[in-house]
Amino acid sequence: MMSTRWKKVARELRLHRGRTVLVIAAIALGITGAGSVLNTWSLLRRATREGYLATNPPAATLYTDSIDAALLERIGQLSGIERAEARRTVRGRVRIGDDWTTLVLFVPGDPGDLKIGRVTPEAGSWPPDSGELVIEQSSLPLAPVAVGDELPVTLGTGEPTPVRVSGIARDPGLAPGWMEHVVYGYGTRATLTALGGSPHLDELRITATADRMDHAHARRLAAAARAVLEEEGHPVHEVSVPEPGRHIHAAQMDSLFYTQAAFGLLALGLSGLLVFSLITTIMAGQVREIGMMKAVGARPSQVAGLYLRLALLLGLAAALPSLPLAAIIGRAYANFAAGLLNFDVTGYPIPLPLLSLQLGVALLIPVAAAAGPVMRGSRITVARAIRDYGIEDGSHGRGVTDRLLARLGGATRPVLLSLRNAFRRRFRMALTLLTLAVGGAVFLGALNLRASIRGVVAAAFDPLQYDLAVGFAEPYSVEEIEAGLETIPEVLNAEAWTAARAASVGPDRITSDPFTVIGLPPQSRLAPYAALEGRWLQPGDSTALVVNTRLRQLDPNLVVGRKVTLDVRGSRTEWTVVGVVKSSPMAPLAYASRERVNAAAGRPGLAGRAAVVTAPGPSASPGDVQRRIERTLQRAGFEVQVSQRIATTRSALEDHFLMVSGLLLAMAVLIVAVGGLGLATTMSLAVMERTREIGVMRAIGAANGAIYRIVLVEGLTIGLLSWAIAVPISLPMSRLVTDAFGLIMFQAPLVLVPAPGAVVGWLAVVSIVAAIATLYPARTATTITTADALAYE
Amino acid sequence: MSAAIDPGRTHTHIELRKVDKIYDSGAGPCPALRAVDLKIAPGEFVAVVGESGSGKSTLLNLVAGIDRPTAGEVRVGDTAVHTLPESQLSTWRGHTVGVVFQFFQLLPTLTAVENVMLPMDFCGTWPGRERSARARALLERTGVADQADKLPDTLSGGQRQRVAIARALANDPPIIVADEPTGNLDSRTSRAMFELFAGLVHDGKTVVMVTHEQAATRHVSRTVTLHDGEIVPAEARL
Question: Which of A690, A698, A700 is most worth mutating to test chain B (most B CB atoms within 10 A of its CB)?
Answer without folding.
Answer: A700
